[in-house]
Design brief:
By secondary structure, the chain is mostly helical. It has one domain: Hypothetical protein af1432 (Orthogonal Bundle). It is built from twelve helices and no strands. The chain is elongated. The chain binds fe (ii) ion. The site of fe (ii) ion has 5 residues, from loops.
């Protein structure tokens, strides 16, 4: 061991006849200090990396948000739809399962739900009249396109499932996968109610906004068919509490 320069055990083999040889204790103290310094440096580096990652996530989401707003801006009559549906969706999610709103992924999914419409031709997206069957076929691709757009962005997590499944129906007749009941991710089931309510109570290229009372009746009648009955009940409670009227036609 005598030839291993710098070993922390060097002192253990030093001759007791050499009074200048560092003791094992002294070498351990130096070693511990060096380890402490390394740890502090690593912590600082780790904090720096976390900061960079946070910044990167913000930039990614800002880009996605801009893309979603580009879709919204194509049709002036849907202006405010993203903010309203997100507000309804979050209020509703809080009533169904508070842990849903603790995850930012829920809000990301709500806000980016229609991002796949960037892949739908404007002639269909902005058509001033009802779509024919061929056009609907194209329009129904937007949840899959949206999921493909956000899938590589890992920090969006479960948001991709909300985007992919926001047009599924509780009775299994929705798209793109025809999922039924509990097979549909909970955030997508919540969002489907919020999205439909806002679609009915907003102006569309081919009709004006429908009355809130009428929209609520449609939601109620859709329980078990288009919508999860438990979520419909919660939505009607929100409506009774006046939580929705504040946002209707605000966009
Ligand atoms: Fe959609």
């Amino acid at each position: 061991m005598a030839g291993v320069t710098g070993s922390i055990f060097e002192g253990a083999t030093a001759s007791p006849a050499d009074p200048d040889a560092p003791t094992l204790h002294a070498q351990l103290v130096v070693f511990a200090r060096e380890l402490g310094e390394l740890y502090r440096q690593e912590r600082a580096r780790s904090r720096e990396l976390e900061h960079v990652l946070e910044h990167l996530q913000e930039t990614y989401f800002a880009t996605m948000r801009t893309l979603a707003q580009v879709v919204e801006a194509k049709d002036l009559t849907t202006r405010g739809h993203l903010d309203r549906t997100q507000a309804y969706g979050i209020a509703l999610a809080r009533m169904i399962d508070a842990t849903l709103v603790e995850s930012p992924e829920t809000g990301y999914g709500f806000f980016l739900h229609d991002i796949g419409k960037v892949g739908i031709p404007e002639s269909i997206l902005c058509k001033a009249g009802p779509l024919d069957e061929t056009e609907w076929e194209v329009m129904r691709r937007h949840p899959t396109i949206g999921a493909q757009i956000v899938e590589p962005i890992r920090f969006l997590g479960n948001a991709v499932e909300t985007i992919r499944h926001h047009h599924e129906r509780f009775d299994g007749t929705g798209y793109p996968c025809g999922l039924r009941g509990g097979e549909i991710p909970i955030a997508a089931r919540v969002f489907a109610v919020a999205d439909s309510f806002d679609a009915m109570t907003s102006d569309r290229p081919y009709r004006g906004a429908l009355p809130v009372e009428w929209a609520l009746l449609q939601i109620e009648e859709g329980a078990g068919g288009q919508f999860d009955p438990e979520i419909v009940d919660a939505f009607l409670v929100l409506a009774d509490a006046g939580e929705l009227e504040l946002n209707v036609n605000a966009g």
